[in-house]
TrEMBL record:
Tree of life domain: Eukaryota
Protein name (record): Photosystem II reaction center Psb28 protein
Annotated Pfam families: Psb28 (PF03912)
UniProt keyword Magnesium present: no
Length: 142
């Protein structure tokens, strides 16, 4: 038994001694995750959407539908920031965007936004899921 314990301790000591060390900049625990959604460039959307995902059985494509019930891009205080030109999902990897954005109105006033992001490959799906993981953690949804 002592021999087995000794061998296991040698194994774990050797694997940790030669394991690559991550720099603090690459460690997930030392850097906060950054992910935002914008409808107007430079104006972060504060409303957290309801998201519905569908994916083809073979994983070759998928659709994400976002529903924002009270987006701040319609607020009078943010009107001078610009016009809605699309939905931009921004994180440390870059940007994913769609121009399939529709607003619904009630009595002439905008009420909500529905945006659709279409993924045409498994690579786009994986990229989108990495964004959503960061977005969820950034907004306390995890």
């Amino acid at each position: 038994m002592k021999y087995l314990t000794f061998l296991l301790s040698l194994f774990f000591a050797s694997t940790t001694a030669f394991a690559p060390k991550l720099s603090p900049a690459l460690s997930r625990t030392s850097t906060p995750l950054f992910a935002t959604i914008e409808f107007v460039r430079g104006l972060t959307e504060k409303d957290v959407p309801d998201v519905k995902l569908t994916r083809a059985r073979d994983g070759s494509s998928g659709i994400a539908t976002f529903k924002f019930s009270n987006p701040n891009c319609f607020d009078a205080s943010t009107a001078e920031a610009g016009e809605v030109t699309g939905m931009f999902m921004i994180d440390e990897e870059g940007e994913v965007s769609t121009t399939q954005v529709n607003a619904s109105f009630s009595n002439g006033k905008p009420q909500n936004i529905e945006a659709t992001y279409v993924m045409n490959s498994s690579g786009e799906w994986d990229r989108f899921m990495r964004f959503m993981e960061r977005y969820g953690e950034s907004n306390g949804l995890g």
